[in-house]
Recover the amino acids of this structure.
């Protein structure tokens, strides 16, 4: 009779073999020009061959980090492999790891990035791509980059698992995980208390990649911090999102009174209550979305917050403007499809203003 341990060992081998079949891959090499073309061609129709999945849509690298990456590329330094997954239904390539790098390359080749803060190639500072000699432009575009391509057999579960493993292999904490331990205080406690609100969590689906990574608290902090910074976003523009939120939280821990905390809590609950009654999908783009996109959340949450401050009795009758359909793209869809600089003050203000204005102009006046 086979022992229990032998049975388990056989099951282990079967499990390994099954899993290995699902993560079959091959290595491909493309020039930077080809990679950028695959990313940009038909991106406006959301039909680009190489695309960024919903949970990675936020472009978080600032200009200095983008510039440093471009400097590394030009110097010929080793660049991490890009991981993509081939989607069986349409043959498109979903970026599993490397979206910030690919978007930085696309921005640079299209003069959307002016290099800054470089020390090794300091004379490149203030240059855009088209200002380089033609010979250097060609050399950059013809540089090869290696790409690991998961076969189309890889399920969404396998792709998500790979993303999670790649991004947690170094056990790096998310900014909000760091804040939880560093910025202790009453305001921090309020942020995490709000993040546990049952209705809020129902309205904010969190994908497997961000589960238990304090993503809900990150969204609450953005609601509070960006609402207060509106409309100029001066400090946000100077510091970038992460540093601005760090400083905002630290300052609020020092200065917020009990009355301030109670007002903030009521503000949060008013936004959640209004969104629950007004938007069928809550803070998600649609009912099938498994991850709350930060740019969409900010537009809806902060736009709602500002509108309610002007009209606490707000009731909205027309919500067609908020329906997102890639086959029937409206103004809001286009705003949220920005390829670069999603958290530049003007982009953030534009989408918040759009929601605020639409809510107020579609107000159903109660007689």
């Amino acid at each position: 009779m086979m022992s229990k341990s032998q049975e388990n060992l056989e099951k282990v081998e079967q499990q390994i073999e099954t899993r290995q079949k699902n993560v079959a891959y091959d290595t491909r090499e493309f020039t930077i020009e080809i990679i950028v073309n695959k990313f940009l061609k038909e991106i406006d129709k959301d039909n680009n061959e190489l695309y960024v999945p919903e949970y990675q849509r936020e472009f978080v690298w600032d200009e200095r980090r983008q510039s440093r990456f471009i400097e590394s590329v030009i110097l010929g330094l080793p660049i991490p492999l890009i991981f993509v997954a081939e989607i069986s239904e349409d043959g498109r390539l979903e970026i599993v790891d490397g979206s910030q790098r690919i978007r930085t390359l696309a921005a640079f080749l299209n003069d959307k990035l002016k290099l800054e803060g470089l020390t090794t190639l300091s004379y490149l500072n203030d240059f855009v791509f088209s200002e380089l000699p033609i010979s250097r432009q060609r050399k950059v575009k013809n540089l090869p980059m290696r790409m690991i391509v998961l076969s189309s057999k890889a399920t969404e579960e396998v792709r998500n698992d790979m993303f999670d493993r790649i991004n947690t292999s170094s056990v790096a904490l998310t900014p909000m995980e760091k804040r939880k331990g560093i910025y202790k205080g009453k305001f921090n406690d309020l942020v995490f208390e709000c993040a546990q609100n049952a209705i809020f969590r129902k309205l904010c689906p969190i994908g497997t990649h961000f589960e238990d990574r304090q993503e809900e608290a990150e969204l609450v902090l953005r609601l509070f911090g960006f609402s207060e910074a509106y409309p100029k976003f001066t400090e946000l523009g100077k510091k970038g999102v992460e540093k601005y939120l760090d400083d905002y939280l630290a300052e609020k821990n020092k200065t917020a009174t009990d009355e301030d905390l109670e007002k903030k809590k009521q503000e949060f609950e008013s936004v959640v209550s209004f969104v629950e009654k007004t938007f069928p999908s809550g803070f998600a783009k649609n009912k099938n979305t498994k991850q709350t996109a930060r740019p969409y959340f900010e537009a809806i949450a902060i736009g709602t917050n500002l509108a309610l401050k002007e009209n606490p009795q707000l009731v909205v009758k027309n919500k067609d403007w908020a329906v997102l359909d890639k086959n029937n793209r409206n103004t809001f869809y286009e705003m949220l499809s920005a390829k670069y600089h999603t958290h530049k003050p003007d982009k953030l203000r534009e989408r918040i203003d759009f929601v605020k204005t639409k809510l107020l102009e579609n107000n159903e006046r109660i007689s």
DSSP finds 16 helices and five strands in the chain. The mean pLDDT is 87.
